[in-house]
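ESCALATION

Customer reports they have been waiting on this structure for their group meeting. Please prioritize. Original submission:
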Amino acid sequence: MAEDLSEYEQELKQEWASGDGVEPGTKKRRLPQKKSRKNQEAVEEHWFPELSREEMLRTEVYGEYLAKVAAADFYVARYRKRLLGEYTATLTLDQAHSLIRSPAAQVLPTSFFRGMRIPVGDHDAAFLEHEPGLDEAEESVGEYAIIRVWWAENPEGIEQRVQSAVTEGEDLTWLDFRNEEGEDDYMAVRRDSVLGELQRLASSLTERFPWGEAQATWFVLTGEPPLVPPIKVRYTSRPAQVYLEPSGKPERFEYGEVTISAVPWVSEKIVAKAYFNLQQRILPGDENRPLGRRRLELLRFVIQRENPVDLTQARRGRIGTELVEAWDRKNPNWAYGQYKQPTSAFWDAFNDVEELVLHPSWTHPRKVSQSGEAASP
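Update from on-call: job pushed to the front of the queue and completed.
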């Protein structure tokens, strides 16, 4: 039922029903920086349109059904058994957040928690100090830290030495989760830790269920049924560049892609509305105006004769008169000879259409509202 949905999903529904793009809230501090994340210009947004009551119920029931199926998954049940002691055991929201923020869960393996009988959702941990040490197995000097873990039955706690000199990719992975503000977040964890094991499981679930990794993480810990959005809209701004001879100087431009995924029962009107909403925010105002045949023919006319990356000011000055005369002969109805400064008008028109076709001012879709105006921070 709608009242059982998480606050996060309620906010998503309200945001997308209104059609407004808003700035994401401030997220928790993330250390270290997530350097190797795939294309940072890619953004996926979930669309919860104004569905009918029956359609919304269908969305909710579908999510609840998938959650029941996933709960019976061998790997989900095994992880919960090893972590929490029962195949169907889950954590409360507070316990899940406490686990995510626990330095011990970020660096120590599940076997350590089990061996020391540390309650996963009800413990505290902190790093005490850093010290140089000798890695006897590798016979090399390494950097180590002391972590202390304590809980109700053991207030004095126990200490464990862990290696702190770790490498992203080899030792670290990135865990996506839902933070205390109900927003998708991420943090670095050791691959062999409690949370590193959780990350692998969540990633596996996203390959078998229509969930994001943060949703899958939260489902494993809390049992909360992820709400599958009727429509997913993904916008990607991709850079492209060539290195010019002989200097090797780069020439850059960008191109954008929009990918829409929809469940089969969503009407074509809702799909069209989702695309139109995103398009208005990516290309606000004049950026989305149609290009007439004259300007497109002008762009084709020039690039059939010249490589645009070689059109320096000096080159344009040398060939401008020749190009204008050739254009006017071919297109007398669109002649530039009628202007006081034909070559200037010609190149101004070329610059305008080149900018719109190849160098558009792509706007991050969450930076502006549906009206095309800058969103309030």
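Sent to customer with the following note: Residues 302 and 323 are 8 Å apart (CA to CA).
Escalation resolved.
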